[in-house]
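Consider a protein example.
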Amino acid sequence: MPITTEQIREIRQQFARLKPATVTLDGHRPMTIKEAIFSLAPTLERMKKRGFDTQEIVERLHEKGIAIKPPTLTKYLKEYRRQKDSRKSKKQDTPPPPQPQTSVSQKDTALNRQPITYNSFVRPDIPDDEL
């Protein structure tokens, strides 16, 4: 059965309107506890700086429906910091821009050297008249 361009157009329009099964109609998707902590990590870090201890943060998270234990929260926050630091170091470790290429004579003068010249000649072991 041949497929027409009209059928392709209809299929394309129908597929464009489809939503994945894991995404709700509001565009929200279920998250794991770890994903939730990673997305809240900047806020949780600020809470710790303001004086909240881990147990207090865990209690606040429980109130909001995120069940996590203090050691797990600490582990996830450390992992978040490590990932954040590694991203920063990757940005800082960029290689320097490439140097413009110079010719051999420019390199020699740049290094205060004279170009190497060879003053030699080939001396035949058989005289020319015998060849």
Summary: The chain has a mean pLDDT of 77.
